[in-house]
Amino acid sequence: MTAVMLAPRAIIVRVLMPLAGAFFLSAVYRNIMAVVGPPMAEELGLDASALGLMASALFGALGFVQVPLGLALDRFGPRRVQVVLLTIGAVACLLFARSTALPEMIGARVLMGIGICACLMAGFTANAQWWPKQRIPVMNGWFMAVGSSGGLAATLPAQWAVGIVGWRGLFDIIGAVTIASAIWIALVLPDHPSAGSRRSSIAEQLRDVARIWTAPFFWRVAPAGALSSAIMHAWLALWVGGWLRDVANMPPTAAATILLMANGAQMVGLVVVGSFASRLQARGKSALVAIGAFAGTLAMLQLVIAATHGAWPWVWWVVFGFFATSSSASYGVLTQHFPPALAGRATTALNLLVLTSSFAMQWGVGIVIDLWPRPPGGGYAPEGYRVALICQGVLHLLSIVWLLWPRQERPTN
């Protein structure tokens, strides 16, 4: 595509919407296991740690490719990167639909992770390229809110689709839609005038990566941002389905309905936290206050859910979804702290920690749950879920104290 300068409305139509469409699909990829995971585990006889490993393989692959992804986004731009990777994701869906054993499923989930690895980062990179600095947090929030509606599609609609075409047919459909998304981006998304304008050497690019990883401000923001996302992915993308079945004793349709409501609340929360952060900055205050408020509430909710033993699940998980959104503001704060030329590498640096933490958290919850014997009637022991929530909540609170502890950092130039 020819490099052009765009008016705000054109940026929304030609940049934000096609990239948000791809992020919509990535939310389906990430969250679909919350619906298909429990019945798949029963069908294949998987224990909790095996299910957690299969689901989290996607996040492990996502994390593994973040450093080269950041280099690629800054060098080639979101359009070229997304078209190639989404094609890989579509092939992975078709392979998963035809898998018959756990190793094959894990391999396909790894390829899915590679295929969607740029969906969030491409949007953040494009926002950093096309919008003024003060608009980045709110536009990141809107981008994530629109794209995260894919989490809604991975709840009740997915449950209905599985009943009609089965889980294999569902993944065939997802693969076909992914190819359509790649074509949309190839035809509509323009390259920013700065894309590829500075052809620095790989050595120079890696030195820039080192500048990000050694910046004190990065390590101030990263722990809370990574844990917020990892906890969200651990529960809304996998384990809340089992929790609703094993702790709250809910049937699959009711559980999918709660997942739908929680993901809807998450979409609202993404807009609210981005707007909150932008408003604070407009008044000369730190956006870290917005991150701390949302992340702190999420940490306390984990302890509340653990203490209520399955009571009020409709309330707690919907509120959980609303506040599990602070990492979107974390990305915006980081891109403001570093030069625009490093936007892709700054966001992917945080995303590397987000995704490796998500891999560890999804699998780790399964390992904790397996410390208790499985009940005779099937499912997993409620005590395991409770202990996992408590451990996560305490760790999350510590990261928020670290985030808000007073000190000063200068922007990295």
Give an overview of the whole structure:
79% of the residues lie in helices and 0% in strands. With 413 residues, the chain is mostly helical. The chain has one domain (8-190, 200-404): Up-down Bundle (Growth Hormone, Chain: A). Helix 2 (33-44) crosses helix 12 (216-246) and helix 4 packs antiparallel against helix 17 (343-369). The protein is globular, with a radius of gyration of 20 Å.
Summed up, what is this model?
By secondary structure, the protein is mainly alpha-helical. The chain has helices at 8-31, 33-44, 48-64, 66-76, 78-97, 102-115, 119-130, 136-147, 150-153, 156-188, 202-213, 216-246, 252-282, 288-308, 313-323, 326-337, 343-369, 382-404.
**Biggest sheet: strands, sense, closure?**
none
Question: What is the name of the CATH class?
Answer: Mainly Alpha
Number of domains: 1
As a percent range, the share of helical residues equals: over 70%
Beta strands, count: 0
Structural class: mainly alpha
- What order do the SSEs take from the amino end to the carboxyl end, as H and E? HHHHHHHHHHHHHHHHHH
Stretches where pLDDT is under 50 for at least 5 consecutive residues are none
User: Might you state the CATH topology name?
Assistant: Growth Hormone, Chain: A
